[in-house]
Amino acid sequence: MPKLDMRGVRQTYAGVHGDVMALEDMNLSVAPGEAVAILGPSGCGKSTSLLLAAGLRKPSAGSILVDNEPVAGPRLKTSLILQDFGLMPWKTVEQNAGLGLQIRKVPKSERKYRVARALEQVGLQDFASSYPAELSGGMRQRLAMARALTCETDLLLMDEPLSALDALLREEMQDMLKRTWQAAGYAQVLVTHSIEEAVYLGERVFVMTPRPGRLAYTLDNPEMHADD
Ligand code: ADP
Ligand code: ADP
Fold first, then answer.
1. How many angstroms separate the first and last alpha carbons of the chain?
2. Which terminus of the chain faces fewer neighbouring Cβ atoms within 10 Å, N or C?
3. What is the DSSP secondary-structure string of 78-145?
4. Tens place of pLDDT per residue across the chain (228 aa)
5. Which atom of ligand 1 is found nearest the CA of 44?
6. From residue 87, how far is each of 30, 65, 100 by CA, in Å?
7. What distance in Å separates the CA atoms of residue 181 and residue 122, rounded to the nearest whole number?
8. Residues 6+ apart with CB under 8 A from 160
9. For residue 124, which ligand has an atom nearest its CA?
10. Mutation pick for ligand 1 pocket among 26, 28, 44, 215 (CB with most ligand atoms within 8 Å)
């Protein structure tokens, strides 16, 4: 059974000159523990696909299943990392990392333990009481990752998580994402317009057409399978 299964998904947005078709016919199936990348030009509906998969929007048509259940709203074990990381500037690193657990009403003592473990996994244990503004770009990225790691995530959705970083850091963070995924074993959907990133981080790469987005073709990634 796939972790995530999107079939014939269409999404239109209301625009000034009538409806805008953002996604025409999206089909995507991700196995448990599998990492896929969605590659496509700007505006083809990549972010929309993730918002739909996360249950933050309802599709205009088509079906979206997680664990064979229709997605009706946000799901506890689905984590979404956005381009700006969604950090709260007035909260400390520790509090930011614990936000997902707080929303899920996990008791404070358990929160503390899980946050400490996740911060250690991403190497931020010494920055627990710092604020996001005191962190470098790479550290913010790792903090967003720590937040997802605290939540027993089994489906991680990432919208261009590396595009705000400079080239050198991007390479380092690519390694971090790959290592964390391999260690934690969640299913992962990474949206990107970078071919290099898609090929480095996706076991399969879904290539989309320009807007309105459709799946153009799927690429089994020989590079990724070679070092399995
Ligand atoms: P991508 O992530 O591939 O750049 P998006 O999913 O963000 O694509 O957007 C797909 C299309 O839908 C774009 O043309 C965009 O302008 C439009 N769109 C996205 N979100 C909205 C919205 N909330 N309202 C109206 N149009 C939107
Ligand atoms: P990366 O994110 O890959 O670790 P960075 O350039 O972000 O690379 O940071 C490298 C190291 O420098 C960090 O792991 C941290 O120990 C230290 N560092 C970066 N920014 C700060 C900061 N604002 N305050 C203290 N130490 C920092």
1. 22
2. C
3. EEEE-TTTT--TTS-HHHHHTHHHHHTT--HHHHHHHHHHHHHHTT-GGGTTS-GGGS-HHHHHHHHH
4. 999 999 999 999 998 888 888 999 999 999 999 999 999 988 889 999 999 999 999 999 999 999 999 999 889 899 999 887 889 999 999 999 999 899 888 999 999 999 999 999 888 999 999 999 999 888 998 999 899 889 889 999 999 988 878 888 888 889 989 999 998 899 999 999 899 999 999 999 999 988 777 777 888 876 675 554
5. 3
6. 27, 28, 11
7. 12
8. 83, 191, 192, 193
9. 2
10. 44
Cis peptide bond prior to 2, omega within 30° of 0 = no
Atom 12 of ligand 1 has which residue's CA nearest to it? 22
Rounded distance between C-alpha atoms, residue 56 and residue 173, angstroms = 27
Q: What is the predicted ipTM?
A: 0.62
161 cis-preceded (ω within 30 degrees of 0): no
**Residue 20: both structure tokens together:** 């805008």
Q: In a 3-state reduction of DSSP, which class is residue 63?
A: strand
The one-letter code for the residue type at 26 is M
- Count of CB atoms situated within 10 Å of the CB of 168: 9
- Cβ burial, residue 21 (10 Å; 0-12/13-18/19+): middle
pLDDT of residue 187: 97
Distance CA 41, CA 112 (A): 41
